[in-house]
Structures are given as structure tokens and as C-alpha cells.
Amino acid sequence: MKSGFLSKLNHPVMLAPLAGISSLPFRLINRRFGCEYAFVEMINARSLSYENKKTAELLQTAPEDRPLGVQLVGSEIDYIKQAIDKLEKYPHDILDFNAACPQKKIVSKGDGAGLLRTPRKLQLLLKAIVGYSRMPVTVKLRLGWNSGTAAADIAAYAADSGVSALFVHGRTAAQGYSGTVDYEAIGKIKKKVSVPVIASGDILSPTLAKKMFDETGCDGILVARGALGNPWIFREIMAMLKDGKIPPRPTVNEIAETMIEHFRLCQGCFNEQGSVVRFRKFYVWYTRGLRGTKVLRAQVMRAQTVKDMFEGIELFRDKAQYNT
Ligand SMILES: Cc1cc2nc3c(=O)[nH]c(=O)nc-3n(C[C@H](O)[C@H](O)[C@H](O)COP(=O)(O)O)c2cc1C
What we know:
This protein has helices at 24-32, 45-49, 53-58, 77-87, 104-107, 119-132, 151-159, 183-192, 206-216, 233-243, 252-269, 272-287, 294-300, 306-319; strands at 13-15, 38-39, 43-44, 68-73, 94-99, 137-142, 165-169, 197-200, 220-223. It is α/β, with parallel strands linked by helices. It folds into two domains: 4-243, TIM Barrel, CATH 3.20.20; 252-319, Non-ribosomal Peptide Synthetase Peptidyl Carrier Protein, Chain A, CATH 1.10.1200. Strands 1, 2, 3, 4, 5, 6, 7, 8 and 9 form a nine-stranded parallel beta sheet that branches. β6, α7 and β7 (165-169) form a beta-alpha-beta unit. α13 runs antiparallel to α14 (306-319). The protein is globular, with a radius of gyration of 20 Å. The protein binds flavin mononucleotide (FMN).
């Protein structure tokens, strides 16, 4: 079923929120290859209510960075409302609420996936957020706290709060990021709720993207780890869904050109040290799996200046090869 914000999109393949990764340059580079809807990484409601400087930096955006989702994490409604007030001055299109993060420091406060242990509390919180926000509200869930949880019942509680869609990561909180995604459980949620269900988990290739749609009946998918150093995954998934034909992988030259574009976007957002330090991990992701790159990655992890980084990219262009 298509409704609300999904009906405004041209396609339902979106970029997931990724803490420490989903900065403006990362979103823009993925948009270049077909991503239409992207997320800012989760933002702590209490920090945003104090307008902490680092939090404001996370909300940095640009006119071409739309439509955009902002995600809040927390469980104290007063702070969440204050955070929503602060968000008024930051352009965005959807307000998502995180009931999915399994990190100890988050769940120990009853936030993130901790809320999956108290579905009624989660529903009340969501109702209050939906009532307060001027933006459409969505929620990101996991398949409950552990394998003993009735995932479809929790999802139904959440859906009954008036949210516009559910994002469902097909693992339990106890699983963290390991183990396999439970397609059947996502399918059961899809059958049980009447709001759109956007599925997440192991969208690492066009084939796995199609499998998620086929096996769960979901309305959309979130690409997460599959987009790290791999914005091409968007054009590949779109082609797969259209006619089953996957375009060839990018050439070494195309990877180098995309790295340059991505790094320049970082330079536009951060100072020299900030852009170099942030781009190091992307360099590792862009270059992995290609022959002749191990020594380059070790070198770039020590890069200090913009010049060092460009040198690392040019060395990659000269030396990297696909394994045949
Ligand atoms: C490093 C990292 C950071 C993440 N940060 C967030 C986040 O801020 N908010 C959120 O809802 N999910 C977050 N996730 C979960 C992803 O959005 C996604 O649901 C999950 O990785 C499953 O998809 P995948 O198996 O395709 O990676 C994060 C995942 C990773 C690996």
C-alpha cells in the first residue's frame, strides 16, 4: 500500500540513518546515484533540546538534500517536544522516532530498542509525538527485544499510534547487527498493519534488495551498510527492480572520480582536518575488495592533509585492479 510520504516519492529505495556516517556529503553522493530519500543519523532529543553544537552540525543540510528524514532518539516526552521545537529551523520532511538502536548506553536508559520491551509506553510516546509534530511521523523498529518477543504485536501497537509508516529492521535487539534477517517476521508485520512497511536488513546487493521485496511484500527498503563506499548500489537496485538487468560495476576510474567528488563535498562541510579524518573510513570502504589496495589503505589511514588524501586517491587510480 502506498500512502502519505511514500506516495510523494518516485521510488521506494531509501538511504538508512547510520550514526557517525550519514553526514551531508554521504547523503549527497548517494543521491547522485539515484537515492531520493535520505536520513540524518539519529539525534539525541535531550542534546537537541539544549542545542548542543555537535548536534546542530549533524543537521547541516542543503537545498539538494531533500526529501530528508530526521530521526530522534529518547524516551522523555518533554525533551522530545523541545527537540521538535528546535527542529523547526532545520529543513526536513519526515520526523522519525528511533525504537531500534541496540547500543547499551541507549537501551540502559530505556531509549531506542529499550522501548520494544514496553510496547504500550512506546505507543503512548508515539501518540504524543504524532500529536505534537507538524511533520509526518514514522518509527524505526526491530523485531522486538529478543527471539521471544511477538514482533508483529509490537509493530501493531506502534502502527496504531497514528504514525505514517514503519521502518522495520529485520533483526531483534539481542541480535545486534549479526545473524540473518528474518524475512518471514517482516512479512507478518506487513500483513498485520495498515501503514506502509519499509524493510531494513542485509540490503547489500540488488539481488538481496529484490529478495526483501519478494519475500516480505514490503512497500520500500532502506539501504544501510550496502551503501558504504558503494553509492552505485542505488542505480543497481533500481535497474534490477525495473528489468532484472544489473549494470556493470563501476570502473576503477569511476570509483576514483566518485571518491574525489565525495571528498570535495567533505571539504565543503568541514575544515581540513575534519574532512581528512572523516574521509579516511570512506577511502577504506571505496577501495576494499580490489587488488593492490591494502597498502594504500594503511597509508591513507595516516593521511593528515588534503594533499595526502588526493595522493591516496590517485595512487588508487594507478594501482587498483578488479580480481579476475
Ligand atoms: C554503523 C551503523 C550506524 C547505525 N546508525 C543508525 C541510526 O542512527 N539510526 C537507526 O535507526 N539505525 C541505525 N543503524 C541501523 C541501520 O539503519 C540498518 O537498519 C541496519 O544496519 C540494518 O541494515 P543492513 O543490514 O543493510 O546494514 C546503524 C547501523 C550501523 C551499522
